[in-house]
Amino acid sequence: MWLWSDACGNITWIIERKKEEIMSENRNKQEYVKELVARARKAQAVADTYTQEQVDRLTRAVGWALVQEETVEKIAKFCLEETRMGTYEAKLGKLYKKVRGVMSDINPQKSVGVVEEDKELGIRRIAKPVGVIGSLIPTTQPELCPATQGILAVKSRNAIIFSPHPRSQRTTCLVAEVIRSVLKRYGAPEDLVICAEHPTMEMSREIMAQTDLVIATGGAGMVKAAYSSGTPAYGVGVGNAVVVIDETADLKEAAHNVHISKVFDYASGCSCENSIVVQEGIYDEFIGCLKAEGAYLVTGEEKPKLQKALWPQFPENHVLNRDIVTQPAKRIAEIAHIDAVPDDCEFLLVEETGRGEDYPFSGEKLSVVLAVYKYREFDEAVQIVNEIHAYQGAGHSCGIQSNDEEHILTLALNTKTTRVMVRQPQSVGNSGDWNNGMPFTGSLGCGTWGGNIVSENITLKHFLNNTWLSVPIKGTVPDDEELFGDAMRESAQE
Description:
- This protein has a seven-stranded parallel beta sheet, with helices on both faces. Strands 5-4-3-6-7 form a five-stranded parallel beta sheet, with helices on both faces.
- The protein is globular and about 70 Å long.
- 45% of the residues lie in helices and 16% in strands.
- Strand 13, helix 14 and strand 14 form a beta-alpha-beta unit.
- 47% of the residues are buried.
- With 494 residues, the protein is of the alpha/beta class.
């Protein structure tokens, strides 16, 4: 009894001590974040006094610094070395393109003082900062999100605190330092942009709790945490894009678009195709076109091997194997022990019929693995898209490779999605491209379908508060006939 009692006492002491250590660490995190927020508020108070000319000059300087060849190459190289995810070329391309795209969108926009006026209605809109923004940065986009969001924060006269993912914290901090150096050179407060160091889950919670607005780019858990923080938040829902290929598509062009989208940065983006739905009459030909683009069709006993490689603990849970995330196809094949995959393979195809949690290939895979479905009539294609999104990816996006306007509109009208890309590489088009009108961004709102408050690309307007200035106008009160028409007359006849 004495030994048991003594042992129990020791164990209890160890547990209590551990709790004390955790509580102490949490208190330290609270104080650390409190200091960061205080610094950010002090910097933002200075930016609040800037004129539009000052803001525009500073924003252009930040954007220009982020597209300098030496800087972009350094960030891309650093990101690849730290995360071991994606490709160097893709990271270069993302920064060059998205920074320029965001600058192209916001350059003509006003963000200080009266930015819009409707004289007929007697309304003027005055733009104001929101204050201090807390941004949760995903490990898959540690270079892009801080770059684009940093630009938007400066343009909107906000301060922003990045809470990086532990696996990619140094990359996010490097981007922040590039921006801070520009701010310092131009005499602006460096603390308009801050990267939290040594990130933890508790630190992220504190940043969300202590800032004025949260931008959470990541999975469902992160979005839920953001909306539960008590702070207004923009969440970005789970990606799981589905693209329909119908019989009117240019099959070679469609296959090339799928290839471009799927292999870009080894599928690190939430917008790349995770499933395609192909009309049965063109199915075999289209598979051939995909093979010509570097795809390998997994068959027979290879499919369960691939599933085991992606979800080692299925069906107990659906957690992806981190070793396959944003890795080249050959590396995934090696993990899956599929020897037939050639060295030059760029992405893997796996045929699927089921949708939902019992069929993990119907979900988001964060890898160059593409599920392939077959449909007969177009209504069935729409149904497949909706059933896949009912499992994962509701609200995010879908696409169609088609020249049939009725099919295109039917898909858009009957899916719970905020973006439908037509005859484009999905991952390229969703977040803005030079050949479409989508706003450039690194954060995609998915509407209430995806558990988000916005159903559009998150851009400058989402970083601003508005004051509506209203003066009296010479208005008229409409009569009941104008307002109620047939309803009023029908009621009188009853």
